[in-house]
Amino acid sequence: MPIIAVAPLFFLLLMPHRLVAESAVKHLTIGAFSYLPYVDETASDFGSLAAITKLAFEVTGIEVHYKFFPLKRALREAEEGQVDGLIGCFFSEERSHYLDYSIPMENVPVNFFALREKHLRWDMEMLKAYYVGVQNGTSLATDLRKLGIPVEESQNNGMNLKKLLANRIDLFVGSTAWIQHELQHKFSVAERRRIEVLDPPFQVQKLYFAASKQHKNHQFIIERFNRGLEVIRKDGRYRKLQRRYQKL
Predict the structure, then answer these.
(1) Domains observed in the chain
(2) Which of these, 89, 34, 62, lies nearest to 212 by C-alpha position?
């Protein structure tokens, strides 16, 4: 058969699968966890990252509904296919076995926090002598253990900050904006003054939307999200949403 006849036949064979995927994916249930200030369960539209994700899907004809869980539960729900995807994800090799990642949405600095009166600084060798607090379920715990750094996990940022103030850990590491938001809203001025951010950042992580690989159309979902995200970045709506939340 001539090549010129094969090419149209090949694309015709692909079309039914694509049309089925397009007609099947009209609604998504996306798992979320509180990741302030980016994702906020108490806000009317759940924060900037949730609003951006919803809009990116809307411009490609997909409706989004959010379900909130603690971080570890949200990851398990995605792994088991109980939700169609997750927002606010860092990339890790382990998670890539069950999550399909979008193009990056945000760059997020990750810093160490310490008591100001201890005058601590850090490098990779010094870290091995410290006990470092980290939130349970985050990829940071895995990263630190691989480097031989003693880690103590807690359920949330607030518990880690209380441990730091009580001298039960030497350092606390996490998303800088998230921890600063926690300090600003849940700790006294006197407590905030005792805590400092150590530079340089330990990491600059990227935040992603991720589709559960249990969803048979996960590649199509990621393709649609990426397309929608590019559209709202180009037409200015992405930046408009960012500026709106920066003022809050």
Answers:
(1) 3-107+206-246 (3.40.190.10), 109-205 (3.40.190.10)
(2) 89
Q: What are phi and psi of 231, to 5 degrees?
A: -60, -50
Q: HSE (CB half, 13 Å, CA atoms) of 70?
A: 9
Give the Cα separation of 95 and 76 in Å (integer): 10
Q: Residue 98 phi/psi, 5° resolution?
A: -125, 0
Q: Is 77 left (phi over 0), alpha (psi -120 to 50) or beta?
A: alpha
Give the type of residue at 11: F
pLDDT tens across 212-229, in order? Answer: 999 999 999 999 999 999
Is residue 63 within 8 A of residue 28, CB to CB? The reply is yes
| Tokens matching residue 140 | 């940071």
Strand partners, 108: 205
Radius of gyration of the chain from its Cα atoms, rounded to whole angstroms: 21
Whether this model's pTM surpasses 0.70 = yes
Taking CA 235 as the corner, what is the angle to CA 101 and CA 86, rounded to the nearest 5 degrees? 25
d(CA 90, CA 178): 14
Q: Are 91 and 143 in contact (CB under 8 A)?
A: no
For residues 51 and 32, the answer to whether their CB atoms sit within 8 Å is: no
Q: For residue 51, what pLDDT is reported?
A: 95
Element (H, E) at 111: strand 106-115
In whole angstroms, give the CA distance from residue 57 to residue 62.
5
3-state secondary structure of 50: helix
